[in-house]
Amino acid sequence: MMKKFLSSLKSQTTKNILINTFGNYLNIFFTAYFAFLLVRLMNPVDYGTLSVLLGIVYVLANILDFGISASIYSFLPEIYEKKTHRLYSFIKTTFFYQSFFSAIVIIVLLVLFPYLDMIFFKTYAPWWELYLTIFSVFFFVLQNFVLNTLIALKKVTQAQILLNLSNLLKTIFIFFLIYFKTVNIFTVIFAFGILGPLTFFLFIFWDRKKSVIEIIKAPIKKDEFKFSYTAIYFLASQFFN
Asked: How far apart are alpha carbons 90 and 86 in whole angstroms?
C-alpha cells in the first residue's frame, strides 16, 4: 500500500496536480493581497464600485467560456498524443470561434452596458470605466483559453509560472500607481483586466514562439469545433453562473 502511494507521488500526473495546486494558491494569495492593499487605498464608495465591476468581469468571463474549456480538456489531450498537425488546427479553430462569439457579445454589451448599469448595477461609473470593464472581459476570456490549453497539453508548470509572473508585474504596477498617487477605479481595472492578460500573452509568445507561429499558420477547419459537445456543457454550466 505504501509502495503504491510513494510510486503515485512520482507520477507526472501527481506532479502536475501539485504544481497546479500550488500555482492556484499563489494566484489566490495575489488576489487577496490586492484586495487587502486596495481596500486601504480607496474610499469605500470607489472600492465598492470597483468590486462590482470586477465581479462583472469575472462572471462574464466564465459565461463567455461557452463551454469551450470542456471541449479543450476532452479532445485536446488525445490529439496532442497523436503528434499531428491537426493539433494546431484544433487550437486555432477553437480559439477563432470563441473569440468570434465573445466579440459579438462584447459589442452588444458596449452598447447596452451603460443602460444596464443605470437600471440594474447602479454603480453610476463614468462611461470610460464601464467600457474598460467590458474590454477586460474579452482579455480574460482569451487568457483563460490559453491557460486551459496549456494545462490540457500538460504544460502545467509553464502555465503557472507565466500566470504568476503576470501577477507579479501587476503588483509592481500597483505600487507604481501608489507612488504617483494615481490609484483609482480606471487604473486598477486597467492593471487587472488589460495589463495582466497582455503581459501573460507576451510571456506566452516569448516562451512558446515556435508553437504560436505554427498555430497562426494552421487552417481554420469548421469540423474541428465540437459545437454540440460545447453547447450541452455551456447550457448545463450556466445554471451555476
From this structure: 6
Rounded CA-CA distance 51/189 in Å is 10
3-state secondary structure 194-239: HHHHHHHHHHHHHHCHHHHHHHHHCCCCHHHCCHHHHHHHHHHHCC
The model carries a pTM of 0.83
* Residue 100 burial class via C-beta count within 10 angstroms: exposed 0-12, middle 13-18, buried 19 and up: exposed
Q: Are 146 and 204 contacting, i.e. CB atoms less than 8 angstroms apart?
A: yes
CB 240 within 8 A of CB 112: no
C-alpha to C-alpha distances, 19 to 55, 62, 79, 144, nearest whole angstrom: 27, 23, 23, 18
DSSP string computed for 60-112: HHHHTTTTHHHHHHHHHHHHHHTT-THHHHHHHHHHHHHHHHHHHHHHHHHHH
Residue owning grid cell 454589451: 109
Burial 221-232 (b: 16+ CB within 10 A, else e): eeebbbeeebee
Measure the CA–CA gap between 64 and 56, rounded to whole angstroms: 12
pLDDT tens figures, 50-106: 999 988 998 888 888 888 888 888 888 888 887 667 889 989 998 998 899 899 989
229's grid cell: 459537445
- Rounded to 5 degrees, φ, ψ at 239 are -60, -40
Residue type, 192: F
